[in-house]
Every structure is written in structure tokens, then in C-alpha cells.
From TrEMBL:
<dbReference type="GO" id="GO:0016787">
    <property type="term" value="F:hydrolase activity"/>
</dbReference>
<keyword id="KW-0812">Transmembrane</keyword>
<keyword id="KW-0472">Membrane</keyword>
<feature type="transmembrane region" description="Helical">
    <location>
        <begin position="17"/>
        <end position="37"/>
    </location>
</feature>
<dbReference type="InterPro" id="IPR016195">
    <property type="entry name" value="Pol/histidinol_Pase-like"/>
</dbReference>
<dbReference type="Pfam" id="PF06439">
    <property type="entry name" value="3keto-disac_hyd"/>
</dbReference>
<protein>
    <submittedName>
        <fullName>DUF1080 domain-containing protein</fullName>
    </submittedName>
</protein>
<feature type="domain" description="3-keto-alpha-glucoside-1,2-lyase/3-keto-2-hydroxy-glucal hydratase">
    <location>
        <begin position="60"/>
        <end position="196"/>
    </location>
</feature>
<dbReference type="InterPro" id="IPR010496">
    <property type="entry name" value="AL/BT2_dom"/>
</dbReference>
<keyword id="KW-1133">Transmembrane helix</keyword>
Length: 481
């Protein structure tokens, strides 16, 4: 029963007084607010287009439709369909200016915010939905918690802290109460079968178990407010980090994770050994709320895996932490026991390391150069001495030639800011990455500092839509027994 229908005629004797009539009206109205029951949301008003009633609503750029009703705690569910390059926003707790927005925009991973984003607070950069196909969505507000799910998968779980960080442009992006609205941004987006469930004041999200972020001290929320993509492309499920933990951490911290196994041999953590294992892993993760990456590990991976198998992933990265040393031995230089100088100076060893790096980047079709400029532990105290301008130039030249992105690595805090600035001057693109060893790997602090210290902008960042690796030939440049 709608609230309007609660105002039926009451045949009451006047002797009871107007106060009694008023109190009975309040009682009737209160009784008509039904909780925990899904009801159709099918009547909308537009300042320009009037009233719409129906189960399917289409919005185009410039359209704004307000649903009837004022809501605090609720679950809004429905289906959406986006045309290519179309975008719309679902507003809630709004009067047209206040409240939050959930975006509906699909397409390639190109740095634009994608479906499910809690706009400017928890931006997402890969969509779990496709243009031209109806997909399910759900938006829930329970107290201070906002949850968003796409096709049954949670993509946002944000708890508004007592002191949210908001720049002036988004000062009203706060929880309170208000209307639900749909606004067209570009192209055409359709919604159907919208259902609204009111929740009581004491409703809680039982899955919201992570500690609330202190936004007054948090760097990530500041980047979100700038709509600067915060993506960690280099996360491994190892050291106790499970898919479920990574999922919860990503939503809580506001960092998009690219989860990647190793394809090859010699690494740590999950290793893929052949094309069949690559395809099986992809099927396992394709519907999860992560970017899908894979790391070429060791120096034999280009001969082990087909380009077609690795091509199903959003991106591919490798590093120069495994080299063929000057004696022809496969050496993992992050393991001191495998670093052998054999009478040559460290300067000569460094020259060989740069030679190997150039050879790897020239012949292996990777999108991202990860753990860049890493040197063995005993050389690291003199990192700046070993990475001379000439050596840096050789590596940057090959990155630019093959359009390979340079990872800013949070774990090792490399490359140096000086090298990052030189790469920016050459027009080389950047990614953020951690290369974690366990579940406690921070929040990209070094990467975000590098953005500020080196003057990086969104235009300096690399996204999978820029990948050219599928066009590069695979060269078997090492000869193995």
C-alpha cells in the first residue's frame, strides 16, 4: 500500500477533536511504511519532461528523473543496459545536488570510471558488465555503510567515517536522506525492473568487517576526489593473501587491484606452467572484481606460452630480476646466493644487468616493466651511482620504442624520482605496483608520493586499452638446452 493510499476518508465524529483525527492519520501513515519488502520503483518526475510511469526507463545525456519517495536506509535493485560509450548515474540521498552517485559505464579499461563506481569516493576502473547486455545492480545503504554489487558481485563496501574528507566540489557528497534519481551523462542507458526495499534505522551490513579508514590522514581518498585512477597492477595471491582478503582490502582502501599469477618458472607464489593452466586460471578470475594480469616469470616464458593464451588477460608484465648472467647462468638477482660476480667489478656487472634489461624489453612482449631499476641487495646502497644517466637512457629508450609502461614500485621504492621525471619528459607512461610478499603491503604510499613529487597527471598513466603487445612478434632470443 502506498503512502498516498493511506489518506483515505476517515468517518470520525467531531467530538473526538482534531487532535484525535491528526493522531490517527499519523498512525495510519506510519503503518503504511513497509520495511524489508521489495516494492516497484516505477514512477518518476522530470523537471523538463513531466511524469513517467513504467517498468523500463531510458535516459539520455541531460535527462534527470526523480523517483517518488524519501529514503534513508534501503536496498535498490534492478537491471541496466548501456549502449557503447554511454554513461548514466544513479543518485541517492539527493535533492539534485547532494548525496552520492553510482555510475553505469562499461567498455575498455581506459582510465574512465566504470560501472559500480561510488563516484569520487570509490572509483572503479574495470566493469563486470558489458555494453549491449542487461546486467544486475544493487545499491544498499545501511547506516553509514554503502554497498554496491554488479551481477551479484560486491564491488563497493564503503563506510562513511565520522570526519569524511571532501574537497569543495564534493562537500555535499554525504549520507543523510533524500530522493533517488537517474541522470543521463552520455549516450543512452536503460533501466528496468527497479525495486526498492526500505530498511529500518538499525539496519547494518554484516559483511562490513574492515576498520573504517581515517580519511583525514588517508592519501587514497584525496586521489579519488581528484578522479586520479588508483590501481595497483602488481598484486600476488601469496603469503597468506587470499582472493577474499584482497577483495575486502580493495573495497575498504579504495585501491583497484590487478591480481596476477606468475607464468613461467622460478618465481614465488602461484605459478602457471602451460596454456591449459593459463586458460583455467582466467576462467577462475574473469568474473572477480579485479583487473586480470599475468606476470612473465623467468626468461623462458615466451617459449612456454602462446601469445593467444596470454592475450586473454588485461595486461602482461615482466621484470629484469631474473637474468642470464655473464657466465650464462640463470640468476635471480633478488636472491643474494644467486648473484655471482666471479672476479668482475660491480660496475661491469651493472653494465651486464643493463644489457640484459634492454634485451628482455626488446624481445619479450610485455605491457609493463615491473620492479624497474632493481639492483642486487649489496649494490642497492649505491643505487644512484650505478644508475648513471647513460644507463638510464638505454632503458628509457627501449621503453619508449616499444610503448612499455614503467612501473612505480611501492615495495622497493623504485625507480628514483629523478628517473621518473626523466621518463615523464620522454612521454613514457606509468603504472603503480607493489609486488607484495604477504597481505600487509600498504596503500601505494611511494607511488602516490611520486605523483606529487614528479608532477604526474592522469595523462601520464598507462591503461590496458593502450596495450600494443599483441602486435609485437615473439622472439625466442635465449637458446636453452
Amino acid at each position: 500500500m502506498s503512502i498516498k493510499k493511506c489518506f483515505y476518508s476517515l468517518s470520525l465524529p467531531y467530538e473526538g477533536g482534531l487532535w484525535i483525527v491528526a493522531m490517527m492519520l499519523v498512525g495510519v501513515m506510519t503503518g503504511c511504511v513497509r520495511y524489508n519488502v521489495a516494492e516497484p520503483l516505477n514512477r518518476f518526475n522530470s523537471p523538463e519532461k513531466g511524469v513517467y510511469e513504467g517498468t523500463e526507463l531510458a535516459v539520455s545525456a541531460g535527462d534527470t528523473w526523480f523517483a517518488e519517495g524519501d529514503y534513508t536506509n534501503f536496498v535498490l535493485a534492478g537491471e541496466a543496459l548501456t549502449e557503447p560509450d554511454a554513461e548514466a548515474a544513479i543518485l541517492f540521498h539527493t535533492d539534485g545536488e547532494s548525496g552520492y552517485e553510482v555510475l553505469l559505464r562499461n567498455g575498455a579499461i581506459d582510465g574512465t570510471r566504470k560501472t559500480g563506481s561510488l563516484s569520487t569516493v570509490r572509483n572503479l576502473y574495470r566493469s563486470l558488465a558489458e555494453d549491449g547486455e542487461w546486467f544486475d545492480f544493487e545499491i544498499a545503504v545501511r547506516g553509514k555503510n554503502i554497498a554496491v554489487a554488479i551481477n551479484g558481485t560486491d564491488v563497493v563496501c564503503y563506510t562513511e567515517p565520522a570526519r569524511p574528507y571532501r574537497v569543495e566540489a564534493y562537500a555535499k557528497r554525504l549520507l543523510s536522506h533524500g530522493q533517488v534519481a537517474v541522470r543521463g551523462e552520455r549516450g543512452k542507458v536503460s533501466l528496468r525492473n527497479l525495486r526498492m526495499t526500505r530498511l529500518k534505522d538499525d539496519a547494518v551490513n554484516e559483511t562490513d568487517t574492515m576498520p573504517v579508514v581515517d580519511e583525514q590522514k588517508d592519501a587514497v581518498i584525496r586521489f579519488q576526489q581528484r578522479n586520479f585512477p588508483v590501481i595497483d597492477y602488481h598484486v600476488h595471491l601469496k603469503g597468506g593473501l587470499t582472493k577474499e582478503m584482497a577483495h575486502a582490502m580493495s573495497m575498504n582502501y579504495g585501491i583497484n587491484y590487478g591480481v596476477a599469477p606468475n607464468a613461467g618458472e622460478g618465481g614465488v607464489g602461484r605459478m602457471l606452467a602451460n596454456d591449459d593452466e593459463v586458460y583455467a586460471y582466467f576462467e577462475e578470475v574473469k568474473d572477480m572484481p579485479f583487473l586480470r594480469g599475468v606476470q612473465g616469470e623467468g626468461r623462458k616464458w615466451t617459449a612456454t606460452f602462446s601469445r593467444e593464451a596470454l592475450g586473454v588477460f588485461d595486461y602482461l608484465f615482466t621484470d629484469a630480476m631474473t637474468i642470464v648472467d655473464h657466465k650464462g647462468r640463470l640468476s635471480r638477482i633478488y636472491r643474494p646466493e644467486e648473484v655471482h660476480y666471479d672476479g668482475i667489478t660491480k660496475e661491469r656487472y651493472m653494465d651486464h644487468l643493463v644489457d640484459q634489461t634492454v634485451k628482455i624489453l626488446t624481445n619479450e612482449p610485455a605491457d609493463i616493466f615491473a620492479n624497474p631499476t632493481y639492483v642486487p641487495d649489496d649494490m642497492n646502497p649505491d643505487y644512484a651511482t650505478y644508475w648513471t644517466d647513460a644507463r638510464v637512457d638505454r632503458v628509457l629508450d627501449v621503453l619508449r620504442k616499444y610503448q612499455i609502461a614503467l612501473e612505480i614500485n611501492a615495495r622497493y621504492k623504485i625507480p628514483s624520482f629523478d628517473i621518473i621525471r626523466k621518463a615523464k619528459e620522454r612521454g613514457i607512461k606509468f603504472t603503480f605496483g607493489t609486488n607484495n610478499v604477504d597481505a600487509d603491503f600498504g596503500r601505494l604510499e611511494y607511488c602516490l608520493e611520486a605523483v606529487e613529487r614528479c608532477g604526474l597527471t592522469v595523462e601520464d598513466m598507462w591503461f590496458p586499452s593502450m596495450s600494443v603487445r599483441r602486435e609485437r612478434p615473439v622472439v625466442i632470443y635465449n637458446k636453452w638446452d
